[in-house]
């Protein structure tokens, strides 16, 4: 068996994977193109650990049986050659992002609730913003309702943190009757048994959940089934003070409808890390709307990202060698 890692590893990360590989051949080479990947896999490979999966690579490695993605999402990989064939198992790094993205989401909610989106702009203008009007806009998270759209590893850790702040949690998932999470998570992270939410909703009940929420976090992956999941109808159901955080994919929300609601102040605000087109176009009104907190698709970033992904890959590699079920196996029918 030959294992190829194309992401560029530190000595400690390389040792972690090599130990899990046992006596298998292990090639570690940072690759920036399909040609470099094909060259690194000379003679074929059985397992790939990487991020981008060019069609040329898949077609030139007929022995390939499993790909471990560095990312939590698989939408970029389920195209072309991989979409045409199910001969290659695909797993994601879902779970390693749960802590940083959940913290990012809570931070965005806290920033909005305490008016940081206003005071930081005032700081840039050199203004001392302390008046009765501003004070009336500041609120606490405690006692508010948080609706989690997509109750996977990220949504569950966000729910755990939100509950610690005294928030009431509502959860939406594809199968609301199944409360458990079979995905990979670090110990003590998330809500694997689904004990936190006060109420569960299915996809067809999303309008009701949005209408009942003061804060909403969207963690859905980008798939044909989730495109436009939150549109004009759903946004119209939101409370006038509601704040929405999207860390899933930009395609999940009708961005034009959201912009109109923000401009007309029909909702309180939005924290956006993902967009329909990235980079966000310079002429987008989202850059200047004062009720928007905007970041460039970085909510999952943290300094030990690759090490966490390598630990998950090593666990999965042992499972692969022993013929056990892989963690975070992508269901091609759902796209995640």
Give an account of the 3D structure:
With 336 residues, the protein is α/β, with parallel strands linked by helices. The protein has 2 domains: 115 residues, Rossmann fold (3-Layer(aba) Sandwich), CATH 3.40.50.720; 197 residues, NAD(P)-binding Rossmann-like Domain (Rossmann fold), CATH 3.40.50. It has 12 helices and 12 strands. The strands form 2 sheets. The chain has a 7-stranded parallel β-sheet with strand order 8-7-6-9-10-11-12. A 5-stranded parallel β-sheet has the order 2-1-3-4-5, with helices on one face. Strand 4, helix 4 and strand 5 form a beta-alpha-beta unit. It is elongated and about 70 Å long. It starts with a strand and ends in a 14-residue tail after the last helix. The mean pLDDT is 95.
- What distance separates the N and C termini? 27 Å
Helix tally? 12
Main sheet, how many strands, which sense, barrel?
Answer: 7 strands, parallel
Q: How many beta-strand elements? A: 12
Strand content: 5-15%
Radius of gyration: 21 Å
Shape: elongated
Report the average pLDDT across residues: 95
Helix % is: 25-40%
Number of domains: 2
**Strand/helix succession:** EHEHEHEHEHHHEHEEHEHEHEEH
Please state how the strands of the largest beta sheet are arranged side by side. Answer: 8-7-6-9-10-11-12
CATH C-level label of the largest domain: Alpha Beta
CATH superfamily of the largest domain: NAD(P)-binding Rossmann-like Domain
Structural class, please? alpha/beta
């Amino acid at each position: 068996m030959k294992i190829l890692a194309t992401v560029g590893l530190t000595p400690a990360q390389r040792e972690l994977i090599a130990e899990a590989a046992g006596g298998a051949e292990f090639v570690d080479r940072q690759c920036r193109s399909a040609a470099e990947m094909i060259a690194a896999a000379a003679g074929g490979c059985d397992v790939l650990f990487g991020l981008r999966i060019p069609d040329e690579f898949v077609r030139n490695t007929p022995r390939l049986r499993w790909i471990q993605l560095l990312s939590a999402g698989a939408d970029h990989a389920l195209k072309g050659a991989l979409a045409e064939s199910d001969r290659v198992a695909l797993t994601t790094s879902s779970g390693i992002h749960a802590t940083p993205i959940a913290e990012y989401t809570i931070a965005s909610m806290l920033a909005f609730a305490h008016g940081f989106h206003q005071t930081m702009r005032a700081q840039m203008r050199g203004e001392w913003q302390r008046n009765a009007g501003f004070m009336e806009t500041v609120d606490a998270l405690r006692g508010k309702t948080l609706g989690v759209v997509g109750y996977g590893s990220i949504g569950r850790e966000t729910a755990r943190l939100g509950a610690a702040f005294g928030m009431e949690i509502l959860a939406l998932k594809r199968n609301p009757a199944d409360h458990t999470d079979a995905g990979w998570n670090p110990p003590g992270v998330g809500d694997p048994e689904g004990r936190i939410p006060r109420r569960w909703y299915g996809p067809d009940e999303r309008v009701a959940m949005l209408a009942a929420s003061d804060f909403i976090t969207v963690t859905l992956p980008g798939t044909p089934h989730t495109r436009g999941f939150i549109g004009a109808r759903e946004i119209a159901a939101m409370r006038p003070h509601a704040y929405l955080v999207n860390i899933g994919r930009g395609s999940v929300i009708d961005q034009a409808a959201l912009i109109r609601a923000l401009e007309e102040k029909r909702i309180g605000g939005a924290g956006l890390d993902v967009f329909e087109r990235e980079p966000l176009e310079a002429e987008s009104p989202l850059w200047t709307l004062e009720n928007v907190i905007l970041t460039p698709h970085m909510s999952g970033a943290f300094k030990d990202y690759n090490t966490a992904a390598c630990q998950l890959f090593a666990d999965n590699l042992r499972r692969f060698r022993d013929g056990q079920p892989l963690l975070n196996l992508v269901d091609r029918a759902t796209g995640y």
